[in-house]
Amino acid sequence: MNTKDILSKIAELNKISARLDPDESKRSELLKCAAEFTNQFISGLNKAKGFSQKQASSLEITNSEKKLSALLDLYQKEVVETGIIAASGKHLGYIPGGGVFSAALSDFIAAVTNPFAGAYFASPGAAAIENEVINWLKSVFSFPQNAVGCLSSGGSISALIAFTAARDKYKIKNELIPKSVVYLGEQVHHSTQKALRIIGLEDTIIRYVSLDDFHRMKTDVLDELIRKDFADGLNPFLISATAGTTDTGSVDPLNDVAEISKKHKLWFHVDAAYGGFFIMTSKKHLFNGIEKADSLIVDPHKGLFMPYGVGAVLVKDSASVLHSNYYSANYMQDALNDELLKSPANLSPELTKHFRGLRVWLPLQLHGIEPFISCLEEKLLLVKYFRNKLQELGFFVGPEPDLSVSYFWYPFNTDADSKNKLLMDLIHADGSVFLSSSVINNRFVIRIAILAFRTKKETIDEAVRMIKNCLSKIK
Question: Tell me, what CATH number does 229's domain have?
Fold first, then answer.
């Protein structure tokens, strides 16, 4: 192909590819359409149900141009109106987040400017924002300044990073794997076992430590298990405690676990994905000892109400994290002179990553920290209010929760489990407010997790009315 033909083909292709870079007028039109949709969505949340059993139909990608307004109509019907509306205050089932509006703006700005946040050399400012968020988290949890950390997609990847560092520090590999022991509470989040499997530790011995009446790890049992395993010639190396379990919101006795870990020279990890930010509230005393952890994970998309997709991990042993994650390549030689710990990619499996730091940094700067703390305090009171209202209706509730997750069941005279399951089905069919279920102490129970920043007293009143109405259909 000669130069003239090449230039002709380039011009032809450019006419088509130019659609990807609309001019200012078109951008303004698209932004206006998107703004109208998001404003309508947020304004309608109070009236919308929290859950719908409707299934999504075809969202097939075809090679044809469509108007944004038409696509947003499709999105409304097939995404917003199906399943859980996670941005709603009526999501009280799993551990909700919410998605504060300023964080959505942050994501928009991050996507438009598109800095490469993984490497300090590529974008010093973006990497600095990511690191500043980590520095703030270190201050929240009283971690030393020489600890390291990074932002991840959530608790699962954060746990993977922490456990990989523990694995490499204790050199758990080859024939040592089947002899090595991990200690977990009985209500540990399943991402823990998943992370262990992914990093090649599926064949380690896992000891599940029994819980007390408040669903907290029994430290005397933990200590005895470790002593026995050492006596039997095994290789204990990791304890994972939880600061806010998914099932019941319980916080393990972190300080006692820390002391046991120190005594036996084990890696002490804390899963604070859900509950960690309650350390900034009146519940701070429950977190005594978290500062002694070798690693911890926490999810800003839970306790800071950010959109899904931003977790964090802090680790004290930087050498272990670098050993696990730092690699280089010839094409990255320009970045080699920068300090290793300034680049988030050296502390994580991710090289290319979303610029998550902005969605945490900007809302904290824009609103200040106080509104986030007030929102968390509000959730603690709302769960107390909810439990009082349920008891007035004759429901049994679990023990006083540490944080904002609780459970309940109705004491039917016969077939209690099957009737509570029916009650759960009726609640889901109603969908006004979304709740979920679990099995606690071999009993089927219904859970409420109050964390969404849009959950208010009126939401709880609506939930109580829904539960009362559904119960009337069974009795």
Answer: 3.40.640.10
